[in-house]
Amino acid sequence: METTALIWSTEYQRHDTGAHPESPERIGALERALTTAGMFGDREVYAPQPAPVEAVTAVHSPAMVEWVRRMSENGGAWVDPDTFVSPDSYDVALLAAGGAMQAVDLVLEGDAQRAFALVRPPGHHAEPNRAMGFCLFNNVAVAARDAIERHGLQRVAIIDWDVHHGNGTQAIFWEDPAVLFVSLHQYPFYPGSGARHERGAGAGEGFTVNVPLPAGSGDDAYRAALSDVVSPAVAAFEPQMIIVSAGFDAHGDDPLAQMRLSTNAFREMARVTHELAKQHCEGRLVLVLEGGYNLTALGESVVAVLEVLDRDNGSSDDDRQGHLASPL
Fold first, then answer.
1. Which CATH number fits the domain that encloses residue 238?
2. How many domains does the chain have?
3. Active site annotation includes 124
4. Over the stretch 74-133, which tens digit does the pLDDT of each residue have?
5. Which one of 125, 164, 185, 251 is the catalytic residue?
6. Which of 36, 252, 284, 319 is spaced 20 to 30 Å from 201 by Cα?
């Protein structure tokens, strides 16, 4: 069995949001779930390193990054009604972006076939000039840009299965044909973006693919979206790496949304994504944690994803095509 490398640290708990859904306890819940499932064991677990500031300013304005730094340095404050900066948040946000970069490095440098960066704060709402929606820096965008600029990739696909639309990731790569951004999300819902007609602009037109789903959607709706939209879009793009914004707040037990996914749905989304990576980019797959606010559901769902990714089933191409059509 080929296990999936983890980027992991209790340092992520230093982003202290107090009584907030995106709390330090999310990291504690993951530690308990992974320990109970025996998933630390012989697995390669890497301590994250902070992202260089220039890697963050490759996707965010220097003024925005400096603003987050100064806010932390001055003791912290609310960015908006949803988003808090504590005295340690700037350093931890660099560590979250760095964890996503490190996962990409491990895969592209051949130290791991797959990697999952279990980071916080999440990132996919952070826009080029704005922190918002629990997010300070856009971890996935930093990692994707680094894969292109430092590692020389020409095509990176980002699949976002968080229940909220990844408005920040979309905005960052809106005109960029090197990044395919595909998002499955509840709609209409926070942050208000993610309609089907939002497809990118300029050279990037057609490289943004939104799959808005109504409240109450469950496993069958996601199965159809993966089979009918996500898989064909990724196949046509022929990525050299797939990065997943892996949110778990579409789970039926999550308090912040109205979707109805089972834990098994995340297992199947991971399997489909893994098969797409094996078909189109030699298995190069990175996942980066986004949302998920019911602590039990979060732990169970991450364990389910790792169970799938750890399984090196050696499927044939025919088998893989069958997998893509299988129900959730």
1. 3.40.800.20
2. 1
3. no
4. 999 999 999 999 999 999 999 999 999 999 999 999 999 999 999 999 999 999 999 999
5. 125
6. 284
